[in-house]
Amino acid sequence: MAYGLDAGHGKDLAMALEYFHTASLVFDDLPCMDNATQRRGAPCVHLAFGEAGAILAALALINRAYALSWQAVSGSLPGRQSQALAYLEQCLGVAGLLNGQSLDLQYGSLAHNRETTERIARGKTVSLVRLTLVMPAILGGASAREIQLQERISLYWGLAYQVLDDLKDILQSAAETGKTGARDALLDRPNLASAIGVSAAVDRLRRFLALGDRTLARLLEARPGLAFLGILRGALQEELVQVNRKVSEGKEGGRPCSFSN
């Protein structure tokens, strides 16, 4: 709505993007993917309702998400509609989320370094953040400069979120995260903290947040109505505080705070 979208269309788009996100999690948890048992503090969908039920539920979410997306873009000018829908396909398709998931599954045969790990994160995680920030800007007719800033902050915040997730997979228990832990090491999946060490990953996280802060400041100069994004930044800061606490506990307990392959 900060970009002038009708409230109803804004709500449709918000629900659509969350449905796409949730569907990706249901697929990600399947035995043929991460074979997880817990998500958001509850049994994974395939455990509660069977693998077939989980696949059908995820497809139902995707189907409904596309319908809501079309409703959301219907209130914008035709040129913006086509641009936004093309962007949606780009972020979710083989150039975005699907490619990231494919590389994630093939990680065992790839170089276990920062470049590879962050490339996968750009596909799996950054793509979804881009949709939430850039697609409304496109529909609202934002300037090329604003869209560029949204792209940058999506990259910094998306990578920051993924580093946090990687650190929590190593440092926190399932009871603390609400999902199955220690899967990355067990399945040989990308994890920046494992690739470059916990301390280096925390440093990388701080860098992403600092770059995001500078970008957010420029963005708010252009569109003050986006000030609510500070709430999301605050949530990332709270996560960083928790991670720092875990790292300190590890040092004090004599446990190593650096992991590498």
Question: How are the SSEs ordered, and which strands pair?
Answer:
Blueprint (H helix, E strand, L loop, with lengths): L6 H23 L8 E2 L2 E2 L1 H5 L1 H23 L4 H15 L4 H9 L8 H26 L4 H28 L2 H4 L5 H5 L4 H5 L1 H25 L6 H24 L9
Antiparallel strand pairs: 1-2
Helix pairs in contact: 1-3, 1-6, 4-6, 5-6, 6-7, 7-11, 7-12, 11-12
Account of the 3D structure:
This protein is mainly α. The chain has 12 helices and 2 strands, in the order H-E-E-H-H-H-H-H-H-H-H-H-H-H. It has 2 domains: 7-75, no CATH class; 76-251, Farnesyl Diphosphate Synthase (Orthogonal Bundle), CATH 1.10.600. The longest helix is centred in the middle third of the chain and has 28 residues, at 144-171. The N and C termini lie far apart (46 Å). The model is unreliable at 254-261 (pLDDT under 50).
